[in-house]
Amino acid sequence: MPSSRAAAEPGDAPWLAIVIHLTFFLLLGSALTRYVQRHIDSPDAAAVLALAGVLALLYVLGPAVGRLAVVPERTAVRFSHGPGRPPARHLLWLGAVVAAWAVLVALAPSFSWCAVPLFYTALRTLPPLAAYVLVTAFTGYVILAQLRLAHRFDVDLVAGPAAVAALATAVFAFMDRQSARQAALIGDLVRARRELAATERREGTLAERQRLSMEIHDTLAQGLSSQRMLLQAADRVWDDDPARARTHVRTAASIAERNLAEARRFVHDLAPADLAAGGGLPEALRGLAARESTAARTVECHVDGEPGPLPDRVQSALLRIAQGALANVREHSGASRAALTLTYLGDEIRLDVADDGRGFDPSRPAGAGTGPGGARGHGLPAIRARVEQLGGTLTVESAPGDGTVVSAAVPLRTEEAGAP
């Protein structure tokens, strides 16, 4: 019958329990029918019929006793008196079943075959050692009952019950081990899935942090840097050239306005403001070039090839790359001319940012000096990270005094070209 141990073993097949229960009642009914047909006039008939009814009733009460005896805890079930030990309530129920069966067999040995399903109940209810002892006692008692019924010694009556008990015990032990292995495997899979989910969350968090740091660097930080430079320039000429100072202030205000728009869209995780305005990447680059052009520096924009639709993430990344590269030009190069060139090559799109500034040595470690990969901000490492996220390549050509060309090439798969 279902018991505390049965409930603790999720690997038990429900159909097997049903078969065992049906077998018990079939054997009990068969023995009772045989007794009624042959011994209804016996003086013990009333006691046998009563005991058979009591045994059937006790067996039926097994599920209710099992439910009351266990306390579920998530997927595992623990005994109310400690893990691995059956509770007193269930031991009392099992003792009552065994006692009723033993007295019944003493009065009518033909009921001894009901011991077969009781083997299964004992094995599921008790710890292994106690269960094996009880099964052995069952077997010996059945052998004695069968020999008393036959009125003679027969090897079959000794070997048969012993073989059945051994087979039932071996089958249960095998199923018990399989159930334990299955439970362990399920536990390992659940733990592995949780660890994988935790790893993915950590990786996603790190990737999002990197994305946010690059977004802040390429938008808010660069805008604030430009405003600071313009306001400092306005402060230097405020007394000598008020008109020029006002021009610097107006330009700083314009940058602040764009920074505000970027910050709002950044909070809502939308596309860059230039892209959201319509016109796609080419128009966004032209607008960027126009804003970066000053009296001291001219920035041009060229588009080669046949423009086509690009995935949003590619457009956003290339615009951020252009912003970062021009920020390096503005802050570090001292260039008087710069050029943005966007080239459509069918299966690839290329963005080149060239300037005629002082240049630098690309072989020097990042953070050394004041070149585009120098100590301020993310510089080239941030640009390179964006290109690598798109599966592209970044090339930097420069030398001291010869200007700089930063080239980002991003491959385009056919299915991505028409992506929204």
From TrEMBL:
Annotated Gly residues bias: 368-377
Catalytic activity: ATP + protein L-histidine = ADP + protein N-phospho-L-histidine
Keywords: 4Fe-4S, Cytoplasm, Iron, Iron-sulfur, Kinase, Membrane, Metal-binding, Transferase, Transmembrane, Transmembrane helix, Two-component regulatory system
Domain Histidine kinase: 318-414
Main subcellular location: cytoplasm
Keyword set includes NAD: no
Enzyme Commission number, as recorded: 2.7.13.3
The keyword Cell membrane belongs to this UniProt entry's keyword annotation: no
Top enzyme class: transferase
CDD domains, sorted: HATPase_UhpB-NarQ-NarX-like (cd16917)
Transmembrane segments: 12-33, 45-70, 91-120, 126-145, 157-175
Domain of life assignment: Bacteria
Co-factor(s): [4Fe-4S] cluster
Disordered: annotated span: 356-379
Signal peptide location: none
Subcellular location: Cytoplasm
SMART domains given in the database record: HATPase_c
Protein name per its UniProtKB record: Oxygen sensor histidine kinase NreB
Organism: Actinomadura sediminis
Lineage summary: Bacteria, Bacillati, Actinomycetota, Actinomycetes, Streptosporangiales
